[in-house]
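quick one if you have a minute, typing this from the bus. theres a chain ive been looking at and ive put its sequence and its fold in token form underneath. please have a look and point out which stretches look like helix strand or loop to you. anything you notice is useful, everything is just below.

***
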Amino acid sequence: MLVASIVSVVLTLLVLVLSFVTIQKGYAFKHTVDPLETARKKREENT
């Protein structure tokens, strides 16, 4: 029973740490957005 408890705690901590790492990587991701004028010019060129 003691071994099962230790394994459960270790797995729980591992999942918690991996969750935090994943969240931090998501927040660190830099999104890029085209400027509004560029998008408008492209749309006008395509018509």
About this structure: The chain is about 80% helix and 0% strand.
